[in-house]
């Protein structure tokens, strides 16, 4: 019975220790095709397709994360973005196009208050599916939320109405993921 | 290069025309195992694991959706929940445990305003991954948001602090999914 997607989502883990490179048989163009497919196929309220993504790599990746590091005062707070700058080969930036949400709110005023949450559902699915997909391809990564800093660093490279939702920071795993703990969380049947 | 999850997410579609049965080689216990695995493996902010789910089937499924039908006045508005009541074999109800979000907000006050959105990201991933998984298993389905009505119908079967996020209504597809249109939505590389 077991759907193949279950293996894929079970293999996805937070991996912080990264080398700034792609696996031997996986290139930047493959990453782009992967993210493009997921952005296309992730469902959205009324098929509104409000997910957006860009891929940072090379000099832009370094300069955006250097800007995040420099925007944070505390030495401890600088550590994570500095590790992304120095150890990740790429970051996938996920956005929601607020214009899409606002148009839905105008078209369907009865559900206006629900659309921001629906946009978040769709964004989360795109983020986490991408994380599972890159894991299948031999990359590892971790999901970060330096949303305001990243938005400021990207400046006019992206439309003003794109809100940053998350950064998936990826590279070749340098060490495996650590242990993960799970709560008791039974899915009951009401018959 | 292509990760198997890409095929799975591309195959997931909205299917409204359902027969109230499971595929020959897929049982209610398989659905439960599928949802349980996804609830377990879907990541969450600080591994807070705030996703919850229950599976409705049989008499409870019928009575909950009948209650939704009866809560809506307009004949047109009754049509979708009536079709779920009569044509879906089961509904998976996704919740967020608000206590988990509130605890995070107390522990990390600097990110307090972000945690509801993070909970939505995680919930959306669980919903949409489940949708892809049941599609792989020969079921079809559609995602609904009669959240308040469903919460009222479930009453004290679920804790008060579980907020309903979505209902994935499933059955054996009676007719294939219709055409889907896509916008131009390029994922650019910033190098």
From TrEMBL, chains A, B:
Chain ranges of the Nitroreductase domain: 10-171
UniProt main location, coarse: cytoplasm
Protein name (record): Nitroreductase
Protein localization: Cytoplasm; Nucleus
Homology family: Belongs to the nitroreductase family.
GO terms (BP aspect): cellular response to oxidative stress
Membrane-crossing segments per the record: none
Protein keywords: Cytoplasm, Nucleus, Oxidoreductase
Gene source species: Maudiozyma exigua
Lineage of the organism: Eukaryota, Fungi, Dikarya, Ascomycota, Saccharomycotina
Cofactor: FMN
Keyword Endoplasmic reticulum appears in the UniProt entry: no
Any matching Pfam family: Nitroreductase
One of the record's GO cellular component terms: cytoplasm
Keyword Oxidoreductase appears in the UniProt entry: yes
Matching Gene3D superfamilies: NADH Oxidase
Gene: HBN1_2
MF-aspect GO terms: oxidoreductase activity
